[in-house]
């Protein structure tokens, strides 16, 4: 089994990924500075093959030390949030994440040259396809379409250029993975000074699934949604994404390649809202909604081609939206009742 360093291990996807890697028998070192949610705990914190270090992924010397003896690095650390972050922190998303990525690559290049590091798996984003006008988006389209308009999308595209540049100059092997719309449990209210109201409810993360759930649980009626609700997304379970990322880490065919990781199922925001409404309110309460002014970077359609990940990695996201919601709704409901959201 391998030893894997995961940066951003206390994040939303990072938490699922550490659990998956441990379940596969790997030794895992995690680093996070708790900048998103503050200190968090996980069920695996005391696992004998897990070590956590509180620290900043912009610290090249620290990353170099943690990479000693590691076979793989998953570059997941980033300043990241929901759509409100794209506007409230436009500069910070770009500047902070560039510093994280440069430090990560500097440390990884050294660890590959002087140590045992075999490969870096980089977490990119579906937002690299932000400016596309044709769907589904397949691997390679990100180099053919106009660059993303948001600083977040642009920086995620830059992550992919870091990966390829480090290979071209230093022969540091890479895999790029692009998660689509992660859904799961474990998110808290994001730290920061920006408050976003949707009707009479203050949003927790500006991530559509937990925010719709909390608004309905808090009694919002009619339900406020951003825009007309025609935005199309592919809501993918965090556990499925973790399985896909871990497979990409391990699979020899993932060497120097890139993969979309997503469910194949398209769902509009309005369809999602009504499904959550029915699960919470039951069949007899009329579904009522109103449209709020959408954010500038609220991409209307993100639809991935998942053929490559299925054929090369043997990966398919199998958890249905119904199953995800049956897990997320009780979790968010408890968080609301306990005052955490």
UniProtKB/TrEMBL annotation:
Q: What is this protein called?
A: Nucleoside-diphosphate-sugar epimerase
Every copy of the NAD-dependent epimerase/dehydratase domain together lies at: 4-261
What Pfam families does the record tag this protein with? Epimerase
Q: Which Gene3D superfamilies match?
A: NAD(P)-binding Rossmann-like Domain (3.40.50.720)
What residues form the membrane-spanning segments? Answer: none
Q: Origin, by domain of life?
A: Bacteria
State the organism of origin: Micromonospora kangleipakensis
